[in-house]
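User: Please predict the structure of the protein below. I'd like the answer in structure-token form so I can feed it into my own downstream comparison script.

Assistant: Understood. Taking the following sequence of 219 residues as input:
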Amino acid sequence: MKFESSFPIWDKLNTDQQARILGSLASHRVKKGAVIHNGSMDCTGLLLVKSGQLRVYILSEEGREITLYRLFELDMCLFSASCMLRSIQFDVTIAAEKDTEFWVVPTEVYKSILEESAPAANYTNELMASRFSDVMWLMEQIMWKSLDRRVAAFLLEEASIEGTDQLKITHETIASHLGSHREVITRMLRYFQNEGMVRLSRGAIEIADADKLEELRDS
């Protein structure tokens, strides 16, 4: 897979702009759990996922995490280049949920192209609007949906991503995604187990009745 065929507006850039990107482009491979970007790091640049899975999240003052969104193959992240976007006023952390390969376009290179290319500027605005829509959707979930419905939705989403009902995931991990506490998630999952929706074992959760989880999620 080449960057040229993966970057959505590649054909709309001129030859000089394409050359500048390729001349500065960096390819990285990281292991699961690696932190790629956080608020204390220098501005990383524009990320484009080649393979794997990344998680973008924020930390509260108390140190609790909540997932904003995830990045999969051919997804792009601009929050890692937030220093060139004056409207971004919060820090995000980006970590690998799986072994991941990705490209990085340095911030200064991408910023110079934005100033020259209307297609690049339009695409960047559309991408930012899409990501802020994801964040607003998350805020609605937190404000208006009960935790049991959010946990049910998360388990179903995780099963869809992994392609299996046998989820190797800890209660602590779920709590981090949802901005909750491990003890609260454990109580909720035990309730799900008592209702026949899941089966719990050490470090794993099996979805026993997806229909019941979907009914709860959509209630």
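That's the full token string. The mean pLDDT is 91.
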